[in-house]
Design brief:
Elements lengths: L1 E6 L2 E4 L4 E9 L6 E7 L6 E7 L5 E3 L7 E6 L4 E6 L8 E8 L16 E2 L3 E6 L1
Length: 127
């Protein structure tokens, strides 16, 4: 089993920045990639970005390209999400998730392809 702990969420005004962290422990040797998803109240959970552990390949949703950057520190088993130019519509609970199966950049990853999830961290962007 893999345990995930997110941190770094908070309240920020529009145009500001936050960096989220996701620390993984447990059977991390089986992990293929780590991703970020978000869910606003009353809405479906949506994909944000993902990164592979072997090659560091990334894939991000169109809505965050140019603003959000995903990265990883293999030695610490930690993935980061740097969020810049935040907008009120970015307000959501952000979840870190790990998948054991490969992902391919040609298509948007689904939440059903991720096997382990953290409890989430709240990001609130005020206008």
């Amino acid at each position: 089993q893999v345990q995930l702990v997110e941190s770094g969420g908070g309240l920020v005004q529009a145009g500001g920045s936050l960096r989220l962290s996701c620390a993984a422990s447990g059977r991390t040797f089986s992990n293929y990639a780590t991703g970020w998803f978000r869910q606003a109240p009353g809405k479906e959970r949506e994909f944000v970005a993902t990164i592979t552990w072997s090659g560091g390949n990334t894939y991000s949703a169109d809505s965050v390209k140019g603003r959000f950057t995903i990265s990883r520190d293999n030695a610490k088993n930690t993935v980061y999400l740097q969020m810049n130019s935040l907008k009120p519509e970015d307000t959501a609970v952000y979840y870190c998730a790990v998948r054991l199966s490969p992902f391919y950049a040609g298509r948007r990853p689904s939440l059903y392809e991720y096997d382990y999830w953290g409890q989430g961290t709240q990001v609130t962007v005020s206008s």
